[in-house]
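Re-running the complex after MR caught last week's input typo. The corrected sequence lines follow. Everything else is unchanged.
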Amino acid sequence: MGWIEVHTENYFQDGGPQLRALERARALYPLSLHGVGLGLGSTAPLDREHLRRVKRAIDRFEPALVSEHACWGQSGGEHFNDLLPLPQTEEALRHLASRVREVQDVLGRQILVENLSSYLAFTSSQLTEWEFLSALVEESGCGLLLDVNNIFVNSVNLGIDPHKFIAGVPQHAVQEMHLAGHLRKQVGQRVLLIDDHGSAVCPDVWRLFETALRRLGPVPTLIEWDTDVPALDVLVAEAALADQYLERARELAA
Amino acid sequence: MNSPPEPTHLAQLQARLAAALRSPGHDRATADPALIAGIVDDGLDPAARLNLYRNNTRAMFVGALARSFPVIVRRVGDGYFHRLAAEYRDAHPSRSGDLHWIGENFPAWLTVRLAGTQYAWLADLARLEWACEEVLVAADVPAISIEALGVVAPEALPEVRLQLQPALRCVSSRYPVWSVWRANQPDQPGEAIAADRGAEHVVITRTDDRPVLHLRPEAEVQFVAALSAGAGLQDALESSSLPVEDLPLALAWLFQNGLVVALEAPVPGEKE
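Corrected-run output:
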């Protein structure tokens, strides 16, 4: 195991056992702090207290990477504690880019922004998802966290072309990748994929990962398996499999 | 008749989606037509797509609440807990991007919701479980030893304030909440405890990895609660029913358990 990633919000405490556990792990491994609650794309004002706690976690744990999502999460004072999709419009792009700049200013560092898995698309979208993310990188100076499973999920749920997605993101902006399992759910006459992080990475996603590695090189990659967590050896074997793909990519890059 | 404009404006779109997420569920007929018109229809009903998000956000909320109140879930069962959680969410939707705070208002809400029913005791159990949650995330502060009291002039002792650990809570209940909590830990069979078994009073602290519930006499818990709220020794004694002869033992218990972190004595000569 090369490094670990945790949800930033799980380490917002003032003290206690959970913080100490991460301190022990951090002493042994490089760390990535992955936020799920900032709602960068919400039009409601940025939650300053939330951001202050992200900053405190960064100061405490000195992570190598800090990331969040290209999503929104609150409206009218209510938080939905979910990663809600943005339309890929010029307006949403300007808004998200200005929020990312604001966050990066407060944190004093670059953040990575992750592509979402979505269950719906908006008719108002003017850009593809990869055009939207490329423009976000351009306008905010953020990096990207490319979730390969989310790309596959969206290819089934929204009919996007996963290969065009991977070919369309700015190569040097991608500093981390995610792999995960998903759930197949029958909705009406269709099957939708639910990004539940509850099973092994499927063969289609491994193949897409290989494509991504060919284009982007051996980018640090994380297995997200946080529901129905299996025995540790199953998890470690899944991470080892990802490492084999990365090793091959390193040989190709050499 | 004018049809509503297509929600291209980001704030308007988010407000409409938020309203859809709060609503009890949709089909094509009941959903917001402007929102539905703004979602790509590729043969799968946009209302069904919306429902996925609606169900997901609700499941997130209920799941987070259940993780904060595992004993309540075990006592009332998943079905009833889900109904309570849905009602509670209507009254107290999440106000934070950090899910851990969802249960903050649950004990007070349950107190009102279950008043006068045979389940009224659950509100006290909820207070106990939330106290455990708070204790687990409170700051780590080094304790001071009882010798610190020795340097205080005897005449200043009544005014002394003891600052207690941030990771300390007091819960007093007419019901046997400590017994119920203990009987329903994951490694216990979950034996039923009669709610009329009698009052229990608990001081909650923590070890390195879990909350610790100390069952203490009522007067002592009142005394600790008063100290915790900032009262001086004499005021804390007077506001509790702790007999003065029990004071040394109560103080010794606090110090021995590492629960005192600072001591404020009045400066001599400044006493009014």
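None of the earlier attempt is carried over here. DSSP finds eight helices and eleven strands in chain A. The CA atoms of residues 89 and 126 of chain A lie 5 Å apart.
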